[in-house]
Amino acid sequence: MKAFTSYRVAAEHAGLTVEDYLKTIHHYSGRRLQKLTRRKGILLKGKSVFLQKKLHSGDLLQVLILEEDTSKLQPEKGPVEILYEDAFLLVLNKPAFMLVHPTGRTTNGTLANYLAYHLQERGQGGTIRPVHRLDRETSGCVIFAKDARSQFLLEQQLKEKTLRRTYWALVKGVVTPPAGTIEAPIGPHPTQANRGAVQAQGQPAITHYRTIRNLGENSLLELTLATGRTHQIRVHLAHLGYPILGDGMYGVRVPWLSRQALHASRVSFHHLQDNREISVDAPLPADLTRALELCERQ
Fold first, then answer.
1. pTM, to two decimals
2. Which of 162, 260, 278, 288 has its CB 3.0 to 4.6 Å from that of 247, i.e. a possible disulfide?
3. CATH number of the domain that 11 lies in?
C-alpha cells in the first residue's frame, strides 16, 4: 500500500509552482522530485500533476513517501546510542559533528550509516527513515521511523504540532525578557549562500523560549519550535541580539568551544499504537556541560 504526505497550500504560497513549493517550503531535493515525477508520485486534487503547475490557496498536494534504495546507503560500524525504541520508531542521540544522513558528496560516516549497520547486525535490515534533521554540529534527539506508515504518521504529527522538539542553547547576553516568542519570517540570505535571514518576504517562523538560568554575561535557554525552518533557532536568536556561543555562521566564536552550543534535549510525540504521550530526553554532552561550568565561573 502506497503512503502519501499531504500538504494544504496556504494563502501566502498561492502562485508558486509545485516544484518551487516543494523545494522552498518543504525542502525537497531536485533528485527526489525527479524520482517522484517518474513514479507519478505527486498528486494535486488526487491526480498526477506536472512540476510547473501553479498552486492555489487551499489546494491539497499529496506526495508519495518513497521507499529509498538502501543499497546506496552503506552500513558502517559506528556509535549508535538508542534513547528509546518501540515497534514503530527509534530515538537516537546524535553526537555533534555527525550528519544525520548522507548528503551531497558525504556518503558515509553518518548516523544513518551506523544505524543501518546496527539494524543489519540484528537481522533487521530495511530503509533508514529519519523523520527530521539536525545540523551537523547540533547534538541530541533524532527520530527514525521503522517503516513507511510510521514515517507518514510521525510526519503528520510534526505538521499538527503534536510531535514537539525542545532544544537547549547557550547564548551571549542576559536575555530580556527572560521568556517569550520570536515570530519573524525567515528566507534565504540576500548575499551569503547557504544562510538564512529574517526578512519580510520569508516563510513564517515561530520560536518559543525561556531562560533556564543566567550564567554571568551569558544565558542558558530552552527553546521549542512551532515551525521548522532551516537554521531557525540560530537565525532567530541572532536576530534577537543573543547569538549562540560557538556558532561560526550566525553566532559568536569562543576559544573554549569547538561548535555551536545547541542541543536537541527532548522530543515528545504520541505513541503510534495507543496514542499515549511519550517524551524522550538526551543528556547534555560533556563539551556543553564544561561550557556551562566555565560560564558560571566567569
1. 0.77
2. 260
3. 3.10.290.10
pLDDT (tens digit per residue) in 223-278: 999 988 889 999 999 999 999 999 999 999 999 999 999 999 999 999 999 999 99
Cα 34 versus chain centre, distance: 23
User: What are the angstrom distances between the C-alpha of 188 and each of 25, 68, 75, 151, 191?
Assistant: 12, 29, 34, 28, 9
Tell me the residue range of the domain where 87 lies.
70-160
Q: What is the pLDDT of residues 150-171, one digit of tens each?
A: 988 998 898 889 999 999 999 9
- Could you give the residue numbers annotated as active site? 135
* CATH code: domain of residue 116: 3.30.2350.10
Cα–Cα distance, 60 to 290 (Å, whole number): 48
Residues 30 and 137 in one domain: no
User: Which three three-digit cell numbers place residue 101?
Assistant: 544522513
